[in-house]
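Reviewer 2 asked us to include a model.

Predict the structure of this chain.
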Amino acid sequence: MKAILPQKRRRSREIALQILYSMEMREGVTPELAVELYPFDAEDEEVKSYAALLVLGVFKSKNGIDDLVRKHIVGWRPERMVIVDRVAIRLALYESVVAGMIPVPVAISEAVELSKQFGTAESGKFVNGVLGKIVRALESEEGAESTDGGDPDRR
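Predicted model (C-alpha cells):
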C-alpha cells in the first residue's frame, strides 16, 4: 500500500474504531459487511481503503492480540474492558506490533487520542497504561531472546 498522509490515516483509524465497535455490538457481522455498511459518504478512497485494511487486520488478528493482552495485563481480560478501550488497544497492537505498519509510540499516541475522543473520561489513561505495559514486556522478551544466543535451554 502506498503511503498516505497522517491526517488520512487518523481519519481511517477513527472509522476503523467505529466499525470494529459496531462489530462488537453485533456479533456475527463479517468485517467485509461492516465496512460495506459504513456510511463513508464524502471520504476519499485512500481513507476507505486504509480503514478497511485495519478492520480486516484487527478482525483476523483479534485472538492473538487478546492473548497478548491476557498474558501481560493481570486482572484485565479484554472481554471485561470498555468496548472502545478494547478496540483502541487491538487497533494499536495490530497496526504496530502485528503488522508493523507504524512505530509503536505513534500507535500508542493514536490509540490514546481515539480512546479520549470516543471513550470514557478514564479511557486515555487506561489505554496508555495497558499499551505501555505490553510494549515494555515485549521489549523485555526481545532483549532476553537476543542475549541468550537463541539457546532454548537458557530460557
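The two ends are 38 Å apart (CA to CA). Helices lie at 6-25, 31-37, 45-72, 83-98, 104-118, 123-147. We have added this to the supplementary material.
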